[in-house]
């Protein structure tokens, strides 16, 4: 999870993560594509689908907060199929 947050931060999302229960929450504190996503909501839909594809062998991912729905940031819950280390 640390590496994924680092990769997202390199892309400008100022991502951080924390352990929550058996899984993690990743928070993106900045959205470098917000203007484009506002014009085309499918960008965010495809982003979530991409995350789900990336994590499908590891567990599940769901969006908790979404900037385009008025949240301060985008946040995702990642729930592993089995208990994992950070």
N-end to C-end Cα span: 6 Å
Number of helices: 3
Q: Whole-number average pLDDT?
A: 92
Number of strands: 4
Low-confidence spans = none
- Strand fraction equals 25-35%
Order of helices and strands: HEEHHEE
CA radius of gyration is 13 Å
Give structural attributes.
86 residues, four-stranded antiparallel beta sheet, alpha+beta
What does this structure look like?
The protein has 86 residues and is α+β, with helices and mostly antiparallel strands. The chain has three helices and four strands. It has a four-stranded antiparallel beta sheet, with helices on one face. A hairpin with a 2-residue loop joins strand 1 and strand 2.
Set out the fold topology.
Blueprint: H1 2-10, E1 15-20, E2 23-28, H2 34-39, H3 42-55, E3 59-65, E4 74-80
Antiparallel strand pairs: 1-2, 2-4, 3-4
In short:
This protein has helices at 2-10, 34-39, 42-55, and strands at 15-20, 23-28, 59-65, 74-80. It is of the alpha+beta class and 86 residues long. The protein starts with a helix and ends in a 6-residue tail after the last strand.
């Amino acid at each position: 999870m640390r590496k994924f947050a680092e990769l997202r931060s390199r892309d400008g999302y100022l991502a951080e993560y924390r352990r929550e229960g058996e899984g993690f929450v990743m928070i993106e504190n900045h959205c470098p594509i917000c203007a484009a996503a506002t014009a085309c909501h499918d960008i965010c839909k495809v982003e979530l689908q991409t995350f789900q594809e990336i994590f499908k062998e590891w567990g599940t991912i769901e969006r908790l907060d979404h900037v385009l729905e008025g949240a301060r940031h985008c946040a995702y819950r990642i729930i592993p199929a089995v208990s994992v280390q950070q």
